[in-house]
Amino acid sequence: MKSKKKSSKFRLVDGFLLIMMIIPIAFGMTLHILFNPPSNGIEIAGPLVYFTIPMPIQPLPISESQVNSWLLLISVFFLCLYLTHGISAKRPTKRQHIVEWGIEQIDKLVSDNMGEFFKDFAPFVAAIMILSAFSSLMTLVGLYPPTSDLNIVGGWALLVFILITYYKLKCGFVHYLKSFAEPVAFLTPLNVISEFATPVSMAFRHYGNILSGSVISVLVAAALQGLSSMVLGKLPGFLGQFPLLQIGLPAVLSVYFDIFSGLLQAFIFAMLTMLYISSGFPEEDYRQKLKRKVTAN
Amino acid sequence: MELAIGIILGCCALGAGMAMIAGIGPGIGEGNAVAKACEAIGRQPESRSAVTTTMLMGCAVAETTGLYALVIAILLIFLAPGRLVNILVETMNTLS
Fold first, then answer.
1. Is B74 left (phi over 0), alpha (psi -120 to 50) or beta?
2. According to the model, what pLDDT value does residue A74 have?
3. Contacts by A244-247 with C-beta closer than 8 Å and gap 24+?
4. Which domain holds residue A222?
5. β-bridge partners, A182
6. Nearest CB to B70: which of A44, A208, A272?
7. Into how many domains does chain B fold?
8. CB-CB: which of B57, B64, B70 is closest to A201?
9. For residue A265, is it within any domain?
10. What's the total number of domains in chain A?
11. Across the interface, which of B64, B74, B78 has its CB nearest the CB of A205?
């Protein structure tokens, strides 16, 4: 009954997809090594600029974070192909179970937090979550994480802001304008400010968390290096130059800042996306409008 | 000239340090949130997952003000000194 044998062609395609998954990351690492200027010691720097495209107003720099996020898109695309390869209704494989569990979780999360009307939002939310999580995890292979660049996260926040405004406009433009004058008319300026503060705070939250994590890690590593050269510097030969105190603490910090904080921020970004979109949408008024349309016809 | 550049660098560092005083607020707020969440879990252990999710969300939102301060501090440390020194050099050149 249980024949675990896979055909050689299936294995070949599997291997091809896995290799295509790894190639973009390896390419990013090669680029990083090629363009990295020689530095003395530990320093905090922004993303490297790979090349600039001449533009009429201002030259457009293509930075490391942009290139890394493109490579990540390719990699995640092949990861999805790998996970859905050989999917079957009759005899589900191990990875199919994992994927189905994940998709069920996302569906449940979205319908719990956004209501029945936004049930189709699950792919969008899952895409944002996965992209953000993998972007933050890119530090583990030594690449510059795209999420610690304000431009990348700002772009995502702008996308969410456009979606929020689109769903607020569903009941007509007048209704949208009226929603700013609630609950009292003189609060209008504050409402306008808070409307524009939404994407700004989303972008700053995500970017600030990831960036502060890497800055703190670098500072602690540099301090430990200085301390170990102060304490152990008198020892002869190799022992004196080896930063012995750097073992241990940076790894613990990395587990917290790179893995836990990155995954948590991805979850929070997706969660806030869902909450803002579903809370901005006037569902009751939209239903009444639909009903009026039906009775008018 | 050196004195002016020194004052600029020192004031930028001081400003960054003072901006991070804003870290007190989110610290107290998140502490309160976690304390209340612990109480809630202690009272109703079966609602653990829901309380934890809501607590993490609330913590993230409360953290925002602290992160604004952090962004300002980072700008003051890494970006502001170079710009201000450039402006100073340009004005000195135009004056002389």
1. alpha
2. 92
3. A246/A221
4. 148-296
5. none
6. A208
7. 1
8. B64
9. yes
10. 1
11. B64
Query: How many residue pairs bridge chain A and chain B with CB atoms within 8 Å of each other?
Result: 33
Residue A59 in any domain: the answer is no
Is A267–B67 a contact, with Cβ atoms under 8 angstroms apart?
no
The CATH code of the domain that includes B87 is 1.20.20.10
Q: What angle do CA B62, B64, B70 make, to 5 degrees?
A: 130
Please tell me the predicted confidence (pLDDT) of residue A41.
60
With a CB cutoff of 8 Å and minimum separation 6, the contacts of A30 are: none
A51 within a domain of the structure (yes/no):
no
Residue B36 lies in a domain: yes
- Domain presence at residue B47: yes
Instruction: Dump pLDDT digits (tens) for B6-53.
Output: 898 999 999 999 999 988 999 999 999 999 999 999 999 898 888 888
Task: Locate A45 and state its tokens.
Answer: 């720097």
- Say if residue A21's pLDDT is above 90: no
Is B41 domain-assigned?
Answer: yes
Confidence of residue A58 (pLDDT cuts 50, 70, 90): confident
pLDDT digits (tens, 9 = 90+) for A62-77: 888 888 899 999 999 9
Please indicate, yes or no, if residue A237 is contained in any of the structural domains. Answer: yes
Closest-CA distance, A41 to chain B, in angstroms, reads: 17
Q: How confident is the model at residue A2 (pLDDT cuts 50, 70, 90)?
A: very low
Cα(B60)–Cα(A271) distance, rounded to whole angstroms? 11
Of A209, A215, A272, the CB nearest to B67: A209
Q: B74 and A215 in contact by Cβ < 8 A?
A: yes
CB contact under 8 A, A208 and B57: no
Answer yes or no: is B37 within a domain. yes
Range of the domain at B40: 19-95
- Is A86 within 8 Å of chain B by CB? no
pLDDT value at residue A288: 84
Taking CB atoms and an 8 Å cutoff, what residues of chain B touch A212?
67, 70
